[in-house]
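Design job #97: recover the sequence.
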């Protein structure tokens, strides 16, 4: 069986976009029409990883890689850039951002890297990124943080950026106190019946929870996805228990729902 390689992928992309013999769907695509698919493919990669489905991961990574090839082909057609430009820019940037691996700034150099700890590496990485933002004319602290990022990821990234100018708690303990205070303010907003105030205070609770996750070295987006998956599994178990006990869903009483939830929760814990 033929085993395709990188060169074949580039040939395939050119064939798909050939004005005479290409695919009509591929030919009508633009950068803006492809972007939503890129986000979807990235999430499918993350989903396969979170489910531990390594057998599915190569295919999902292939779908994501195809997005890069697609953009590069369109860029080449417009005379703006090509795949070689993409690869060159990536390698050049990563060599510069890893002075602890490439101390002389050369990819193939064999010089021994200096000893560095993780804190120093992260600091140098952020310093270089700040220098690159300045070179692009992005003077604002948050200029290069995309609006299209998922809300949790964007909030955590903004918090990290604020930390660069010293605006952050030094430990997790005061963050937890802030979260408790925000929950109290949310409770007061709920009692007031003011929906605008409730939305504002609820946002503060979420933002503080994201900060707490960050201070514990957790990714808020991933934590939320894991909790959502856990909830889905528990609801499926609730449905199974209800079917077994001939309890109608919907239609069950609050007491019945609470009992089903407790049983499902206990069963789920016993599987870990």
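Job complete. Output follows.
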């Amino acid at each position: 069986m033929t085993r395709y390689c990188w060169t074949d992928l580039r040939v395939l992309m050119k064939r798909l976009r050939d004005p005479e013999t290409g695919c009509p769907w591929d030919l009508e695509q633009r950068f803006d029409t492809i972007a939503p698919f890129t986000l979807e493919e990235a999430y499918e990669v993350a989903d396969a990883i979170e489910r531990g489905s390594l057998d599915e991961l190569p295919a999902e990574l292939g779908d994501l890689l195809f997005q890069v090839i697609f953009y590069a082909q369109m860029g080449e057609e417009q005379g703006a850039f090509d795949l070689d430009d993409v690869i060159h820019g990536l390698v050049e940037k990563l060599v510069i951002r890893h002075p602890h691996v490439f101390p002389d700034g050369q990819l193939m150099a064999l010089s021994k890297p200096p000893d560095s700890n993780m804190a120093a590496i992260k600091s140098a990485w952020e310093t270089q990124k700040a220098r690159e933002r300045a070179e692009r004319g992005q003077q604002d602290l948050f200029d290069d943080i995309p609006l299209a990022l998922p809300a949790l990821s964007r909030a955590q990234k903004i918090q990290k950026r604020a930390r660069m100018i010293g605006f952050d708690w030094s430990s997790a303990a005061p963050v937890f106190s802030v979260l408790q205070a925000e929950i109290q303010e949310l409770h007061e907003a709920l009692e007031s019946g003011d929906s605008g105030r409730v939305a504002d205070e609820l946002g503060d609770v979420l933002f503080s929870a994201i900060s707490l996750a960050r201070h514990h070295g957790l990714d808020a987006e991933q934590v939320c996805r894991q909790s959502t998956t856990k909830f889905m599994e528990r609801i499926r178990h609730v449905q199974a228990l209800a079917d077994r006990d001939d309890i109608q869903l919907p239609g069950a009483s609050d007491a019945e729902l609470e009992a089903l939830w407790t049983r499902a929760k206990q069963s789920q814990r016993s599987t870990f």
